[in-house]
Specification:
With 215 residues, the protein is of the alpha/beta class. It contains ten helices and six strands.
Length: 215
């Protein structure tokens, strides 16, 4: 079954065997693999010629080269959607800050996870799993930040569910309100907290002391 259509993808993976396997899976799924690289310098220098729409970046490269390459790629190619993957959630914050649109745990993700995530990116969406976000939220809770003061009690509830990775439908059911109302609250949160998408909103919530309801 084809997923990718004519979507162009460039790969940066320090493990040659994994990179080869990923390239094969993507090609068989209809993606056009325009670049395969094992080093950051090669990856970055090839972007102008390859012109990928999506890049898959291994951020476990030595000396944080993967995260640095991600940041530089986004700086010079702002329309590039990047799927970053690493060992666990440890690099999630830095990858999102560097401009990644999605993050996967390379130790536990399977091919279907990669393909599903790439489909989201191809539609211009962002993707970080609820499990990954919950793991990040295990950090020490910060004291209430002044940015929370303009938020209503309901907006804080919605923010907590967004932090847990819940979609608007799940939040509506949990809070017994309509999806339209949830959407209005989320839009208000974007405006008040000056964030552009749900992933950024969820990550910011940790720093503001908001914890997912399950925690």
């Amino acid at each position: 079954m084809e997923h990718g259509g004519s979507v162009r993808v460039s790969l940066l993976d320090g493990q040659l065997l994994r990179g080869d396997a990923l390239a094969r899976v993507l090609t068989e799924s209809g993606y056009v693999v325009v670049g395969r690289h094992s080093g950051a310098d090669s990856f970055l220098s090839g972007l102008a010629q390859e012109q990928p729409q999506i890049a898959c970046v291994d951020v476990t490269l030595d000396d944080d080269d993967g995260v640095a390459a991600l940041a530089e790629a986004r700086q010079f190619h702002p329309n590039l959607q990047v799927l970053a993957y690493g060992d666990g959630a440890g690099a999630l914050d830095r990858c999102i800050a560097a401009g990644a649109a999605a993050y996967l745990d390379a130790r536990t993700s399977i091919c279907s996870d990669v393909l599903h995530t790439l489909e989201l990116l191809a539609r211009g969406e962002r993707a970080v799993s609820a499990h990954m976000l919950s793991t990040v939220f295990q950090a020490t809770r910060a004291p209430e930040h002044e940015q929370l003061r303009p938020l209503s009690a309901r907006e804080r509830q919605v923010l907590a569910w967004v932090a847990a990775g819940a979609d608007n439908g799940d939040i509506a059911v949990s809070l017994q309100i309509t999806e339209r109302t949830v959407k209005a609250h989320v839009s208000s949160l974007y405006r008040k907290l000056r964030q552009e998408n749900r992933t950024q909103l969820a990550l910011l919530a940790r720093h503001l002391g908001i914890r997912p309801p399950s925690q």
